[in-house]
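Repro case for the chain-ordering regression, as requested:
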Amino acid sequence: MNVPNSNLKRIVIVGGGFGGLQLAKNLPAGKYQVVMIDRQNYHCFQPLLYQVATAGLEAGNIAFPLRKIFQTKEGFYFRMTEVKEVDAEQKKVMTTIGDLSYDILVLATGSATNFFGNKSLEQHSMSMKTIVEALNIRSLLLQNFEKALLTDDLKERQSLMNVVIVGGGPTGVELAGAVSELKKHILPRDYPDLDFRWMDVKLLEAGDRVLSGMADVSSQKAEKYLKKLGVQVMTKTMVKDFDGKSITTESSTIPAQTLIWAAGVHCEPPKGFAPSAIAKGNRLAVDEFNRVKGYDHVYAIGDAAQMSNEKYPQGHPMVAQPAIQQGRTLAKNLLRELKGKEWRPFKYIDLGTMATIGRTKAVSELPGWKSQGAIAWLIWIFVHLMALVGFRNRLVVFITWTYNFINYNRDIRLIIRPFRSFEERKVAFAKAKEVAAE
Amino acid sequence: MNVPNSNLKRIVIVGGGFGGLQLAKNLPAGKYQVVMIDRQNYHCFQPLLYQVATAGLEAGNIAFPLRKIFQTKEGFYFRMTEVKEVDAEQKKVMTTIGDLSYDILVLATGSATNFFGNKSLEQHSMSMKTIVEALNIRSLLLQNFEKALLTDDLKERQSLMNVVIVGGGPTGVELAGAVSELKKHILPRDYPDLDFRWMDVKLLEAGDRVLSGMADVSSQKAEKYLKKLGVQVMTKTMVKDFDGKSITTESSTIPAQTLIWAAGVHCEPPKGFAPSAIAKGNRLAVDEFNRVKGYDHVYAIGDAAQMSNEKYPQGHPMVAQPAIQQGRTLAKNLLRELKGKEWRPFKYIDLGTMATIGRTKAVSELPGWKSQGAIAWLIWIFVHLMALVGFRNRLVVFITWTYNFINYNRDIRLIIRPFRSFEERKVAFAKAKEVAAE
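-- result from build under test --
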């Protein structure tokens, strides 16, 4: 890969998510040469993906061009590609655009949707870890309502209108709330010919409560808010199969053509690591300095890293805060290294958790203060606005939220690129044979 | 197609562009049953597509959900589909989702890019008539700069950096200006490793001046502004061929991998019309009431219609104003019809033309007042903001423009969905054979 040589040691950061971004931001120019690699040319603010999926925000509102962040830093490089393999012996990474040597490698590669090996779910359900996936959900939801208008078969119509979300974590809860608000305020006005009593929004959770990472009071309130919005919360329910038309659980069959899978993530680290370095969910096992076990110059942060300790035997939660804090700590340690100072171990400061369900309805757990309802909702808004990258994004999101709140509206209900189902893609592929023969 | 029966006469409007939208807006509820058909579920403000293509605005800023416009009007229906054929004998349209009968049919189908039969141009160059096409241009421009970083072959690098725009009308001029501003203010900061003296922005025009629809003074000023921004304006230049790598004109070869074709449009009316009803560029020949010649209950408005008269022997210019005005006039005439009043012929009021080239640089021709420079630029901004559909869109565009102006910035430089070239698609198609066989 085409990166200039330098007298400085080279840090290669793989991934421009929360962790990678904080690391790069906290490394001053002139100390190291820094090369960031990402498949996308932007940082994506994942906590608001669900609003892109439900026509509340535009894709560009939650994305920020990575190159802009590096503009002012000499010796900082960005390359848009994917790391396929790591060769720790020779200290290089292999990418789709060639090899790149490193002195220090940091994997901040995040996590991907985990279907736990269920092929039918993987083929037919929608995941929501990237902007493209969120846009696909937006298109599919709207396409299904356009289709529902065209059929006289009431069963088919119902299955087109139903939306099932699997996974009762913050993502699933927020999605279910947002879809339910679409059902309540937007869709009946857009589709007056459809009877919305036939539309079900179901939230399926395998455990016995939603938001299992939060306190009981938050789970209970969240479930109450969801039910008030008309969401059918089904706990202790495992999805077995989905053929694109109906969803099979252990005890029932749900007619639905939209299944959004928010029930699990796992990591997909590059090839080249010894099995001993791979922990549960394919996270890389790291010590308290985020060093990958058994690899001297390789670090992992955020979702990609599992740092086990007494309080977090399974590693830290796979959310933004541990990634942000590990990125900052690692940057400080790498600067300490240059001064010959000793490294300081990472200590996670839990700043709290929150989830919004709908208008004036949220649950929030800050250190020492649990709140629910309108206050939690205002805290949620404030925290998310401040955390967005870029002043323009913050301003536009604030205006859009204010406008949507006053007007009970979501103007981004646009099918820019129609989503094609697995079956439709199969047909297109078959047709493509002829085109390819040309 | 599934549309309820009604005692009212049914007007089917094909197309939700400027003409169709004005027609629908000016028809009150309860007079006719109105069914609008469009391939998209949104109205697109085409005059600002070039800003979506050059990372200045988001797609959603210039789109507005069509269903929202109809929410308050009982008896108004929207169906997302495409009209394939018209059967005027039986008074019905054939669509991809079934047939629909009409009492009155209005074709407001706009125009599409015209490559004048040149297959190599059609395969390899980019057109910009839809939001998806504008997004493709945005992705391609950015992808090419990412690629340029990776090659040591300086000729290849130059061809990746060069951008050639064909067509010196308002679209081509505005695009050339916007790309040149990217080159001047944005790209060198994002790609400090590239030498931007190698990047050419060329505007090719077959005629002897740009903006040939405007007065000489506007053409001259526009060309001066373009040159000041670094655009190479090549008049009297016809493009012969483009293989995706280099562009062949009558007298030279230009190494460039991006060719944006803004050199012509034509219409693609549904099948079923007699040759006598088809005018130049496949526009439908209409009388002064927009009635398609030889068809009693079929009307065409906007780009799709050619209304020849003394002042406009080739029909009205294919821009927004004639479409808007014809939509309004036809609505009034259709209401007159109900009262047994006589129809009034359409009279085009030319409100003027304008084109913006860059920061504080525009040319404007209002009735009786030609201006250039900062004043024309402010007029352009005001007119375009006011013409945008939707209060939120206006507000967000205003903020984005203000922000971009102050910061010399364009934050939407995101490759959300990478664009794949003709060759890349061919390879993917070939691979798809195996997938389809699964």
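Ordering looks correct now. Chain B touches chain A through 59 residues (CB under 8 Å).
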